[in-house]
Design a protein that fits this description.
265 residues, alpha/beta, Rossmann fold, 6-stranded mixed sheet, 5-stranded parallel sheet, 10 helices
């Protein structure tokens, strides 16, 4: 029996419109009532997922910042946190500045950006967090949890190429959306977060379902007893799946819950 479901948000839980469908809400509430923990697993901060926690009445550990921080949904207690080394963060910041990208930096659940533009405003809206404009990474008072570059989907392959040989191995970088390139400690991943939760909640990996669609979801898809990729994921992500579910616009998360946990499909 599956006891824990880890679910990506953007491109997985939400439709392409950004909507959380009633069908998905009903399925999640039903599985939670059955005693299964439903954990959001996302690059977003805790502020960016609180509305989903409330809507679906979730409890237990939530994976934020791609595993950089694990937070209790109800108490907001930080159960785990791993930050970037300052020198690593400065390399990523300086490179982003040189390449003229919109650089978003998360530190102690606060959001800092290098530009006051439409992309910064869009990311502020997505994250649900006020933005502080800074001129230098030295203006950030705390430790850095994650850095995100926001640029066009068309330019992203070029930006990834520019990282090679410059960004150190102590930093993992990958796309979470086609226009987001995220940087975090190489000791952090959604899989490492699941291992922490296995130990914390006394759950076996065989009892976990992980659902995702993006490159940053691959570690948890590989880790879980059942790794599920939605049909809107690209071919590389799908190659890691134990099961291909309907797309996010077809309520793939609800389909998987109903089929494999509730036995309704």
């Amino acid at each position: 029996m599956y006891k824990f479901i880890a679910c990506d948000i953007d491109g997985t839980l939400l439709k392409n419109s950004g909507e959380l469908s009633e069908k998905t809400i009903r399925a999640v509430k039903a599985v939670v009532e059955k005693g299964c923990i439903f954990a959001l697993s996302t690059g977003r901060p805790i502020q960016g997922i609180e509305k989903f926690i409330q809507t679906m009445q979730l409890h237990g550990p939530m994976i934020t910042y791609n595993g950089g921080m694990i937070v209790d949904a109800n108490t907001k207690e930080i159960l785990f946190s791993k930050t970037l080394e300052y020198d690593d963060g400065k390399i990523v910041w300086d490179l982003g500045q040189a390449l003229d990208v919109t650089v978003c930096v998360w530190s102690e659940n606060c959001l800092y950006v290098n530009k006051n533009n439409q992309r910064a405003e869009k990311y502020r809206s997505i994250s649900g967090t006020p933005v502080s404009i800074i001129n230098s990474i030295e203006d950030i008072p705390g430790k850095i949890t994650k850095i995100l570059w926001f640029d066009s989907e068309e330019r992203m392959p070029e930006l990834i190429e520019k990282c090679k040989g410059v960004v150190p191995e102590s930093v993992t970088y990958c796309t979470s959306r086609p226009y987001f390139l995220e940087f975090f400690s190489s000791k952090v991943s959604k899989a490492a977060a699941l291992q922490f939760i296995c130990d914390y909640c006394k759950i076996k990996k065989e009892e976990i379902i992980a659902l995702g669609d993006g490159m940053n979801d691959i570690p948890m898809i590989d880790f879980a007893g059942m790794g599920v990729v939605l049909d809107n994921g690209n071919d590389e992500v799908k190659s890691h799946a134990d099961y291909i579910a309907p797309s996010n616009d077809e309520d793939g998360v609800a389909f998987v819950i109903n089929k494999f946990v509730l036995g309704l499909q």
